Amino acid sequence: MHRVGHRKQLTIGPRNFETRKAADRFVEDLLYSQPLKVAIQEPHHSFLRSLLSMHPRAKEKIGKGIDHFTVEYSVRGRRCFCLTRIDGTKTDFSFFACVQGSE
């Protein structure tokens, strides 16, 4: 990561962001632009794989491997990214934890 003044640039997959706030905004826009419970297609699928790899508990979240991502409602009633593993199990993950976990 490079310093821009006091702000850190952030790279997620092929995308570069000037700040964490810019990354948060991009991912939040992605979260709200996707239809509910529909497998997210490329190039967003690969971006989400890269994003998830930054999660503090990425290995636990990924488990046996990722089949696909969807947007669903969390237990709190808010939109969230979910992943379905290749064994059919599902979990959600916080994109904020991914972006913050990159420090």
Strand order of the largest sheet: 5-6-7
Number of structural domains:
1
Ends distance: 10 Å
Using the coordinates above, name the CATH class: Alpha Beta
Order of helices and strands: EEEEHHHEEEH
What share of the residues does DSSP label as strand, in percent? 25-35%
Estimated structural class: alpha+beta
In total, the number of strands is: 7
- CATH fold-level assignment: Nuclear Transport Factor 2, Chain: A
Shape: globular
Mean pLDDT: 90
Name given to the CATH architecture: Roll
Low-confidence spans: 1-6
Oligomeric assembly? single chain
3D architecture notes:
Helices cover 33% and strands 28% of the residues. The strands form 3 sheets. The protein has a 3-stranded antiparallel β-sheet with strand order 5-6-7. A two-stranded antiparallel ribbon has the order 1-2. Strands 3-4 form a two-stranded antiparallel ribbon. The model is unreliable at 1-6 (pLDDT under 50). With 103 residues, the protein is of the alpha+beta class. It has one domain (3-100): Nuclear Transport Factor 2, Chain: A, CATH 3.10.450. It has helices at residues 20-33, 44-52, 58-62, 95-100, and strands at residues 3-4, 7-8, 10-12, 15-17, 66-73, 79-85, 90-93.
